Amino acid sequence: MVFASLFFVCFFFVIWLLVYNGMSTIRGKNIVLLTFSMIFYAWGGAQYLLLLVGMTFVAWFCARKIELHRDATLRIVFFISACVILIGLLCIFKYTGFLAEGFQFLFGVPKKIPEIVLPIGISFYTFQLLSYVVDVYRGEVEAQKSFWVLLLYASLFHQCVAGPIVRYSTVAMELEHRRARMSEVAEGAWRFSAGLAKKAILANGCALVADTFLPMEGAALGHMPVLAIWVGILAYTLQIYLDFSAYSDMAIGMGLMVGLHYQENFNYPYIAGSVQEFWRRWHISLSSFFRDYVYIPLGGSRNGELKTIRNLLIVWALTGLWHGAAWNYVLWGLYFFCFLVMERAWKRHNFQLPFVARNIYTLLVVAFGWVLFRFTDLSNVGITVKGMFGLNGNGISNLESKIFFQNHCFLLLVSAIGSTPFMAMLRKQFRHVGRVWEGRLGRVFYMAGALIPLALIILSVMALVGNSYNPFLYFQF
Amino acid sequence: MDIHERREKRKERERKRYWNYLKLEIRSFRWLLLFLCLLGLVIPLRPKKSNVEKRDLERFPKPSAEGILKGDFFAGVSAWYADTFPFREKLLTANAAVERLYGLGKEQIHGSVGAGDEIPTEYTEADKKADVSANGKTGADDETASAQGDEGGDGTVHVVPESAGTIYIAQDRGFELYYFALDSANQYIKMVNNAAQLLAGKATVYDIPAPTSIGIYLDQDIQDSLGCSDQSQAFDYILNNLDKSVKGVRVFDSLLEHNSEYLYFRTDHHWTADGAYYAYEQFCQAKGIEPNAREDYEKREFDNFVGSFYSFGNQAAVLAENPDTITAYIPKGTNDMTYVGVDGIEIEWNVVADASGYDDGNKYSCFIGGDNPYSVIRNPALQDGSSCLVIKESYGNAFVPFLVDHYQTVHVVDYRYFQQNIPQFVAENQVQDVIFVNNADAVSESAVAYMDGLFQ
Fold this sequence. Notes:
Chain A is mainly α and about 475 residues long. Chain A has 19 helices and no strands. The longest helix of chain A has about 35 residues, at about 70-105. The relative contact order of chain A is 0.11. Chain B folds into 2 domains: about 5-85, no CATH class; about 140-455, no CATH class. Chain B has helices at about 5-40, 65-70, 70-85, 90-100, 130-135, 180-200, 215, 220-225, 230-240, 250-255, 275-285, 310, 315-320, 395-405, 420-430, 445-455, and strands at about 50, 55, 105-110, 165-170, 175, 205-210, 245-250, 300-305, 325-330, 335-340, 345-350, 375-380, 385-390, 410-415, 435-440. Chain B has an 8-stranded mixed sheet with strand order 7-6-15-13-14-12-10-11, with helices on both faces.
């Protein structure tokens, strides 16, 4: 089930809220949450539920053993077996085809590439379970005694299929003791509505522009004039942020409605002044996962420049691979690695530009990165790059691109504004004015603040009705 | 009252207002969602067909163990839930209004933009490259023809889920962008030549490729800048490569010459009866008969027609505000006909039916009852045993009425639904003329495959 669908918004979510709020004890609430999470996950194919439950069981069992045993060897045996099983399953389901293709290319075997369907959300919940096992091994959290509570953590439908990758330590307490405060419930409703609108209206609209100007077929792509390619890249850049962060918004919003606090996953990445800063603002839960569980254990930046670069290389190759089992994703990760190494050198030499220039540089690097991200077929990347500089011989612009751009220019503008903190600031001001100004004017601002989420939901429902077009970018993961 | 007390009171009031605000925000959110949920549960409110999109909506899926395990069943439920949401059409219209705010809309493009193959002057097999680009673009290939509709006859039900290619809207008129596909054209040529061979000695084959409005009405420069192919050249290519035994009828020039007249609808992709009339004139010339003068026909008019460019052009307001008027000419010999619907039921109908009560989007169905697998018109004014068979898509509908006065029997088949073998049909019914009427976009792989199937 995807969040930005009528069935989820108008049915599943509402029924869940009703039943959940009807429960008076935390136990009852947890049972409801777990049941709905199981249904939500089974919606994408009941057979994969088995995998989720099985992997959670492995993590739960090994973590318990790790905690119970004092003996270091036994602890490490359980720790390693948990990691091997979890990572192994992830690799089997996600990378078998990719590896087989590589082997076939090099050695001519196997003859047939196995086709394995990627279970929904496996990349996300595997990482959650891994972080849990590692944290228990490190003694940073207590192992969860109840399998069901751990299953609830791993399968929580808020974040199970599209993130954020919530650390067990973040929600450990709240899984068993939580209260939803009124101000947070209201905040949650806001975040949920805003996320829904971001996805259903803005991201889907940008997707239409991106698909028109950056079509997946090489032949059509080769016919695009220069400006169309650039607008297409802009639209895709906006789409991918709005889409992905919208799911995090909805997840965080749903969490707030029931007293679960997930960490922020995006912090307006497109206002970053460097690639490094971009990655501190983009998909924070993933970058911090790699930082805490790969980069730092490898020694981080404490063992000299050469080792640091090696560590960065490993992290970024893995980051690339995590996003999808194809070479373009690996290249995409390594591409960022290059810029990060370069920025380290700049920093050492105190090389500094004004913010606007740094921001433009960052956006260009990131936007081109999305071209790599978009095309699994690397020859299309080549066509796009040539097209960016007019080397496909299609001129600067043509009538149809001009018209199509004109038809969508305000949408792109609103999407760009929506990618900055502007809307959040505006909302804060509304609240502030409503709070400070007594009398009618204050009430108007308060009312407006309360009614905007409603308007967003109604607009989103309309858009979803009109939109059989609803690609879910992150099913890849 | 001292200043502290006042400040405290003020703070208290602020808190209270804030509290009320939170309550309002949470309650309104919950009530709205609850309302939507309840609305979604009122099954009788759920539509089964979409008039705007001219298609049947999703049905509730049949549960199966495999479907549940693999998730297809649940995907079907979600699709059904979304596709048949109550007040769907109203929500679509409202959404289209919102989408108009996405940008400036003097001219509009809906659908993806492609590019045509080069049109050769001599017969050429398409190379691999042309093959790829043919797959990468839209056009009549998108026309999914599945015969799953039902009823029919009242003119409000649409049988084939229609889908158009890329639509360009300028001023108050829509156009469908035309891209030549060499592969499809070659297959079309082969198919017609093969038909002529199979029917040699039994019937004469006529081929009438019909231009679409973009080729007749839109300035050539704009066509070029849109990357469209030249229909005149495309028809030349097809007609020049037809077998000598096929009588190719070139109607493009005649239509172009009269392009100040109302030959194509503004809001729909079809030609008008007047457009079809010029094609009929050319056909008569090819056949060597005298066409009827237009003034001699009894005329019918149906206004407020808002056709496919509206529904596939995201309900462009400029089209709805400028509806078309359909003019129909009733054959002199008879206005009676019989057709067999997709359900196999035979229905008595009119060649030109009264469409004034039809849905605005469906009035083109006034001609020969719309698209049906098989229709037949018997003209009591003629007893010479003359008979023709029209193999057509919907462009043929406006054309057929003009043939009625020249044949004792006019058989019409829509190749997307007709199932019988044509050579056999021709032999059994002693058909003398087999007439292909196809618009430029119907020269597509899928359409040719359908037609080819009728000769296997």
